[in-house]
Amino acid sequence: MTELRLRVNGATTVLSLPPQVSLLDALREHLGLTGTKKGCDQGACGACTVLADGVRINSCLALAVQYEDAEITTIEGLDHPLQTAFVRHDGLQCGYCTPGQLCSAVGMLAEHRAAPDGELTGAEIRERMSGNLCRCGAYNGIVDAIQEVAS
Ligand code: FES
User: Fold this and answer.
1) Cα 58 to ligand 1 centre (Å)
2) What is this structure's pTM?
3) Which of 16, 67, 145, 149 sits 20 to 30 Å CA-CA off 125?
């Protein structure tokens, strides 16, 4: 077991975990933050996306111990205009991928603000969000919501 301080959504919790526990499992199983979803558990779907110091990461591929000094934001702590934009544009159907889509979009917009390299067209947003899959196919609404907030 490893003793670990995790700072999530502004609260610090000390956990005792085996060192191989992923950040995703630490959030869901040990902190009860089940808003972050487990899809593939191997870095292919993006359902588990959270923000670490504002940078989007796949929490299924991250060890919790790697993020002891980071500020983790999950969907439970997110407060961003994208959330209402997703609702306005029907950027979801079943909603399973939505927490990951939102965290990824927030991180993507921050990346683009930090290093602007052209307009965020629909095609560009699709490319930058290609790590987040939606099995319901709500991509048009997702792209429209992101484009509205980005403009
Ligand atoms: Fe992490 Fe699919 S659950 S990428």
Assistant:
1) 6
2) 0.97
3) 67
